[in-house]
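Our consortium's second objective concerns turning raw sequence data into structural hypotheses that experimental partners can test. To show how far this objective has progressed, the report includes one record in full. It was chosen at random from the queue rather than selected for favorable results. The single chain below, 337 residues long, was entered without modification.
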Amino acid sequence: MSGLLREWMAGTLDRTLISLKSIQSIRDIDVVDLNGVDLNLLRSLAVLIETRNVTHAAQRLHLSQSTMSAQLARLRTGFGDPLLIPADSGRGMVATARALALAPALGGLLKDIEALVRGAPVFDPAADERAFHIAASDNAIAALGLPLVEAVWQSAGPGVRIAFHAPEAASIAQQMESGAIDLLIGSERMVPPAMKARELLAERFVFAQRKGHPRGTGALDLDGYCRLNHVLVSTSGGSFHGFMDEHLAKLGRQRTVALSVQQFTLVPELLRHTDLVCTVPSRLAARFSDHLDTFELPFKAQGFTLHMAWHARNHVDPAIRWLHDRLIEFAASAHGP
């Protein structure tokens, strides 16, 4: 038996035996000494009570008779009770009242421990309760979070809930390590190095303007792009210099950023009612194609990928894996415009 289980059992056995006092037949029994009582001894005790015979118990557990006798001696010391005494007939042994009182709870405890050690954890979204905390930008929510929510409503029961959080680069690693955040959906720049991650989809940027914009619908050139008044999405907040400005600087060019906002999802409505323009992810622009015209950028701009990331502590969590599978399905079926 592993040292971890021995340590865990030291506390668990103490609480379990004390709880047995609530059973009327052993209400007045005191727990005397738990030193030396471990998982192997409890298994031996259960078999001894069942067989009432040291030899038969030893055979069932593949132990020598002397080893089984030694274990019975340790159990008697630990529980402060003979537990088993020789039968008057000379054949086998008789369980004491203490042993008989312990037997039902002991059997249940051993089954629970066996399930804990050997049983693979499962997650049933239709019946289980779980609140998932997902850190994602509004663009990531629009691209993958919304279909995820739709799938949860269709296939999961009322016990499954989702909470979206705005990701904060400075604290996301600590939040995932502590368990405050179960999953991150974001660009490769957002994923902390120590986290496990998987790429979900690749994205590119397009130029967007409202339908009926005075610029018209002709091809966009670099001069025209730089002359227009742009909306910049600054996820950190307040910046007037972003990813596209880095590209333009390499070309020796500069654009005019007239408005800075923190959310991508504000952009379509802002463009719809103004002559501002914006460079946005193509999937987001496609969602608002009734109100927006989109064009290829007049320069080469690097796109980005959306990843899902999780802490190693959740790698074998069946609930998190279920969530992973749903996101992978959506990403596989998502085709960029």
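The partners drew two points from this record. The two ends are 57 Å apart (CA to CA). The CA atoms of residues 185 and 308 lie 4 Å apart. Both points have been shared with the crystallography group to help prioritize constructs.
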